[in-house]
Amino acid sequence: MTYSNYTALDFAMDEHFQRWIFTQDEEVAHYWQTWLELHPEKKDTVEEARFLLRSQTFKQNQWSQKRMLMVQERIRKSMTEENLSDISPTKEKKHTFLSSGWMAAAASVLLLLGIALSVYFFYGQEQVFSTSYGETKQLSLPDGSEVILNANSILRFAEDWQEKERRQVWLDGEAFFKVNKITYPSGNEAVKFIVHLKDIDVEVVGTSFNVNHRSGKIEVALDEGIVDLKMTGGERFRMEPGDMVAYSSETQRLDKLNANLEKVTAWQKHQIMLEGQPLSDLALLIKDYYGVEVRFSSKELADRKIKTTLPTDNLDLVLETLELVLDVQSERKGDEIMMK
Hints:
With 340 residues, this protein is an alpha+beta fold. It is 38% helix and 29% strand. It is built from 11 helices and 18 strands. The strands form 3 sheets. Strands 1, 2, 3, 4, 5, 6, 7, 8, 9, 10, 11, 12 and 13 form a 13-stranded mixed β-sheet that branches. Strands 15-18-17 form a 3-stranded mixed β-sheet. A hairpin with a 2-residue loop joins strand 8 and strand 9. Helix 5 packs antiparallel against helix 6. The two termini are 42 Å apart. About 7% of the residues have low confidence.
């Protein structure tokens, strides 16, 4: 079967597809982006598979690999026994109805377990935390550091983090970190905390900062302490409190910006703060927070600037506010919104 015939479940079970969703592999990302350009009719199916995979979050105290395998085996065994059992002619019709319902439900559970196991084996001994559109999540890491994960984001790290005395996390999306400062047992040297992003590593020892890593762009805003940015080529850039930098994978350029931490971290209050940005910028934020595409009837409307505060968890209220403030109309069809 080719990818053009794949269902959302097929994509979710595909290791190469999982690698695109969960890693920063440029070659894999290029393949799938090119494939989607050639098969735009599969966009909704791919988004469904992406959502399905990201909902498979593994936390401490959740099902172990052994338990998932046991449940999977029980369901498979039950389905086999159902097929082989003798069926009385007088009860055949009823039995067939119940059987088909049971079989369908069991098959669905098996598929979901298959996806969960597939992701488990793909990552090995890793903890993976994810959020859906409009959701935030507060996490406590093994070293006591705290993370607030913004909507549509994934954070992962090795389960043996403490044993190796290496504090490393991988982020796709946005998060605010409050990192505890700790030292190695053998001396006074501080243990680094590293956030891995595409093209950049954010290195700290104890500080609080915001990282936004979406669509080939990275923004880091430092609240307190010191942050070192390590580029892929080896260059380093040290940030001081109040600094904010932006990096583009396309231009491979690092720019220093004027920081507005209240605006940058407004998402923690479930808000989007706009201070004169064009609507085209807002469209990107709406895609990140709600997973829908916003299109404009004209370039003039897309360039129109707006200053307001919008919610990150109520799309209907966002659209009502924009219609009232800008005197425009919005029309939603599925995952697309046309503003005119």
